[in-house]
Amino acid sequence: MSDRSDDTPARRLISSGSSFEALAGYSRAVVDGRDVHVSGTTGFDYATMAIAEDVVAQTRQCLANIAAALAQAGCTLDDVVRVRYLLTDAAFFEHVAPLFGEAFARARPAATAMVVGLVDARMKIEIEVDARIPAPPAPPPHDWGPVTGA
Description:
The protein has 150 residues and is α+β, with helices and mostly antiparallel strands. The strands form two sheets. A six-stranded mixed β-sheet has the order 1-2-3-8-6-7, with helices on one face. The chain has a two-stranded antiparallel ribbon with strand order 4-5. The chain is built from three helices and eight strands; from the N terminus they run E-H-E-E-E-E-H-E-H-E-E.
């Protein structure tokens, strides 16, 4: 059984405009039916292509970048069902975990945190999420009005 309705596009690509996307041949996010897959997202400000040195500031920017991609897809951080946190140092976790809790307080997604090496030494965190676009509300039942003379 498919989650796609006749008016749901099979696949849609979302771009942030980052030069990384064109260089490496990927999309910031891919919408497939009601599923949204957001690529690993770092703390770069895509407007300036600058990145803060502080892991907390990078995390805030990651979450803002992810929220922007999700908005283009038709959902929010509250619709996230899976999140992966990639940190370059385990000691960073205690500083950024409260931000995770704030961002995903309503969604409470399945989550994994890993310590990894990232491709640019300035990057201290990368976050990847999967979300689900909410189903459209069901139409209200037809109101036939009062039945008289039956």
